[in-house]
Specification:
Blueprint: H1 3-26, E1 39-43, H2 54-71, E2 76-80, H3 84-92, E3 96-98, H4 106-117, E4 121-124, H5 136-151, E5 155-158, H6 169-177, E6 185-186, H7 189-199, E7 204-205, H8 222-234, E8 238-243, H9 254-273, E9 278-282, H10 293-303, H11 306-309, E10 312-314, H12 321-328, E11 333-336, H13 339-347, E12 352-355, H14 361-367, E13 375-376, H15 378-381, H16 384-396, H17 398-418
Parallel strand pairs: 1-2, 1-4, 2-3, 4-5, 6-7, 8-9, 8-11, 9-10, 11-12, 12-13
Length: 425
């Protein structure tokens, strides 16, 4: 058996064991719960790094802000972690790390420690993990955690997640078995429709939690990036933030696809410059080695000539999520393959040209009634002529697109707040 088939077989066995143990644990009597002060347990999108993705950081900080707004600044905040690095980041963000994750015995261990910690609320940050595309095991753990929290009497909710066209079978099964007291919330209308179709259970349409993240004062080097952006705009140039990564392509094609995209974009930037005054802010949004933001931007930057680099500013590491939100309000728009960078731009009233993946960007753009031509499949984007044409159109229509985003933004923010409706005063 090949290594890939072995991994798939091991993953299938792990999923089956989790589902079996979950059903056994559910038969145990619910622990008695003495009343106590409000305490929120957050199940994050990434228990290993916690905030390696700035999108994960944005959701975590927004959830913290909502909890403190609802229950006061001294509310107890816990977050599930699985590594010392995650523990350290939890402490820095004002959370208590809660070490119960991973392993075949996760359902039993989770139930036992839940009884000991006695939180009052459970918030699950599913993001784009809960369809099982990246890891069905991780998705199952998150659904199992939500079920056990609801059964233990916690006010439990998913904070808004998306679903691709083909969610894992084990995930669909788990959602069908999920305790009905756990509130399921989808972050875009396309995902909400898919969820109802594949699970047969109701869900509420919200918007991503990260829309609620307030921008922060900029520190260096993000402050230098802002100065550069303002100087470019003072010269009458449009400034677009730029970001992509190898995960836009299937794993077997990731390296070749990333290289082809960098080549196409270098050529497109040259052609766009001959037709429109555009400058580029190369903005990483993920510092995980496997995700490839920094490596891809290095790849692109190496392909640029001196003339192109004169109209580019490159950040060598992603700023904090709330500083990215502030920078998003400085540029005119973005070409991005990162959902949460797009959310930062849209949340600041700026339109995006999206490098789509797994059919998930369509739902985000539908929140703002934006046209479908703003979705660019990675297979299309590696064609420099197609990419140039789409970028020129994007620049030309920026005033209209910006107006449209501004018109719809209040309603989207209201949907984001609806995520926490029962908790907010």
């Amino acid at each position: 058996m090949t290594p890939s088939r072995l991994r798939r077989a091991a993953g299938a066995i792990h999923q089956a064991l989790l589902l079996l143990q979950w059903q056994l644990v559910r038969r145990l009597p619910a622990p008695r719960r003495a009343p106590r002060a409000e305490a929120v347990l957050v199940i994050p999108a990434d228990a290993e790094m916690l905030t390696g993705s700035k999108g994960d950081e944005a959701m975590l900080l927004a959830a913290r802000a909502m909890a403190r707004s609802a229950f006061g600044p001294e509310v107890r905040l816990l977050v599930a972690c699985s590594t010392p690095a995650a523990d350290a980041r939890a402490h820095a963000a004002g959370f208590e790390p809660w070490r119960v994750w991973g392993g075949l015995a996760m359902p039993l261990a989770f139930r036992r420690l839940l009884a000991a910690a006695r939180p009052t609320r459970g918030w699950v940050m599913g993001a784009d993990l809960l369809d099982g595309h990246y890891s069905p095991v991780t998705a199952l753990r998150m659904i199992i955690a939500a079920d056990l929290m609801a059964r233990a009497g916690l006010a439990t909710r998913f904070l808004g997640f998306s679903l691709n066209e083909q969610p894992a079978r084990s995930v669909c099964l788990a959602f069908r078995a999920l305790d009905p007291r756990a509130a399921v919330q989808l972050r875009d209308p396309v995902s909400c429709e898919r969820f109802g179709r594949v699970t047969g259970r109701p869900a509420r349409l919200v918007a991503d939690t990260a829309f609620l993240l307030p921008p922060a004062p900029l520190e260096e080097p993000a402050a230098a990036a802002r100065r550069w952006v303002r100087a470019q705009r003072a010269q009458g140039r449009r400034v677009l933030a730029l970001n992509a990564h190898p995960m836009l392509f299937p794993a077997a094609e990731a390296a070749a696809g990333a290289a082809a995209l960098a080549d196409a974009l270098q050529a497109a930037m040259h052609d766009v410059a001959a037709r429109r005054p555009v400058s580029w802010l190369l903005l990483p949004h993920d510092e995980r080695a496997s995700a490839g933001d920094l490596a891809w931007l290095d790849l692109l930057h190496a392909r640029l000539d001196d003339g192109q680099r004169a109209f580019c500013h490159r950040l060598l590491a992603p700023p904090a999520a709330d500083q990215i939100k502030a920078l998003a309000g400085e540029v005119d728009g973005a070409l991005t393959g990162r959902m949460h960078l797009a959310i930062a731009l849209l949340g600041q009233g700026r339109p995006v040209l999206a490098l789509a993946y797994q059919g998930k960007f369509a739902g985000l753009l539908r929140h703002f009634a934006l046209p479908d031509w703003l979705l660019l499949e990675p297979a299309q984007a590696v064609d420099a002529a197609v990419l140039t044409g789409r970028l020129v159109r994007f620049v030309d229509e920026l005033p209209t697109l910006t107006e449209q985003v501004g018109l719809r933004l209040p309603a989207v923010l209201a949907r984001a707040r609806l995520t926490f409706a029962e908790a907010l005063p």
